[in-house]
Design goal:
Layout lengths: L1 H11 L3 H18 L4 H21 L8 H9 L2 H21 L4 H26 L11 H5 L2 H11 L1
Helix pairs in contact: 1-2, 1-3, 2-3, 2-6, 4-6, 5-6, 6-8
Length: 158
């Protein structure tokens, strides 16, 4: 359990959106095991927080994981931000209510919950920063994070 928490904490600290994944995984673990296994995720969240906070405090101006929030703020008007937040919360609530104890269910709801905000940021980058020039589209990297999750879901579902 300790090793798994450490690994999840390390992975979740590699990208700012993966910290959100711990919350989504918390839903799945809670549905499967109740509160008895939540300590695993709390430890992972603590490790993630320690990593993010230590690097942020070391050099706040060069802490790259939070650049995605500032970048999104440049091209998303208030309505688009609200739509993104509402859809992300709806995906989270849907995961809370509809996820089942199966790998395909977990993969689908993890993809949905992470994919919605990343899709908006990725599409905004394509339209606003590189004028639909796919060769210059850095935002594709944001959405590529969730592509393996969806492909795993698709392969298992077929």
């Amino acid at each position: 359990m300790l090793f798994g928490s450490l690994m999840l904490g390390f992975v979740a600290s590699s990208r700012i959106v993966f910290a959100y994944a711990i919350l989504i995984l918390g839903i799945f673990v809670y549905k499967r095991s109740g509160l008895k296994k939540i300590t695993y995720l709390l430890l992972a969240a603590g490790i993630t927080l320690i990593f993010h906070l230590s690097f942020y405090l070391w050099s706040p101006s060069f802490y790259s994981p939070v650049h995605i929030f500032f970048k999104a703020g440049k091209f998303m008007n208030e309505w688009l931000k609200i739509i993104t937040i509402v859809l992300s919360l709806a995906a989270f609530v849907l995961a809370c209510l509809k996820s089942r104890y199966s790998l395909t269910s977990w993969l689908f709801f993890l993809f949905l919950s992470l994919g919605i905000p990343l899709l908006f940021i990725s599409a905004g980058d394509l339209s606003n920063f590189c004028s639909f020039k796919f060769s210059q589209w850095e935002g594709a990297n944001y959405f590529m994070i969730v592509l393996p999750i969806y492909l795993s879901y698709f392969v298992l579902k077929v």
